[in-house]
Amino acid sequence: MQEEPIDPFNGDPTDPAAGLDDLNEDVESEPLTEEERQDVLEDLSDLEIYQALLSPTGIRGLVIECEDCHEPHYFDWDLLRGNLRHLLSSGRPRVHEPAYDPDPDHYVTWEYARGYADGVHDTLTEGTDDEN
């Protein structure tokens, strides 16, 4: 099973992003700190929970406000998971562009997903403290 999305330009000599790899080689990236690494691992763990809870309701992924362009970026579950794994292995985020014509109704924010998961957890554990 493929962990990351397939590159439609893989091996294409006219790949519009071919030169980007050369630019990135000149930039020495520092590895993630232990704290940053732990944060990414926690995000990956949270992402699994969010997907399990929200996919059955029709949610396809998360929307993230891009700090660079200040526009919302829509990521399906697998793409976001691949981006986080890439960050863990390389120490730097991938170059990204906004999704083409996503339906915003199928994406939620990290905060919404976290609140939803917390609500499900609270509902499932409600009353268990009173029984002791």
How would you describe what is shown here?
This protein has 132 residues and is mostly helical. Helix content is 45%, strand content 9%. The chain is built from 4 helices and 3 strands; from the N terminus they run ααββαβα. It has helices at residues 18-26, 34-54, 77-90, 110-125, and strands at 61-65, 72-76, 107-108. Strands 2-1-3 form a 3-stranded mixed sheet. Helix 2 (34-54) packs antiparallel against helix 3 and helix 2 (34-54) packs across helix 4. The N and C termini lie far apart (45 Å).
Concise overview:
The chain has 132 residues and is mainly alpha-helical. It has helices at residues 18-26, 34-54, 77-90, 110-125, and strands spanning 61-65, 72-76, 107-108.
Q: What do the pLDDT scores average to? A: 84
User: How can the largest sheet be summarized?
Assistant: 3 strands, mixed
Structural class: mainly alpha
Which regions contain 5 or more consecutive residues with pLDDT less than 50?
none
**Within the largest sheet, what's the order of strands?**
2-1-3
Q: Looking at the structure, what is the overall shape?
A: globular
Region (Disordered): 1-38
Pfam family, one: DUF5319
Biased composition (Acidic residues): 22-33
Protein name: DUF5319 domain-containing protein
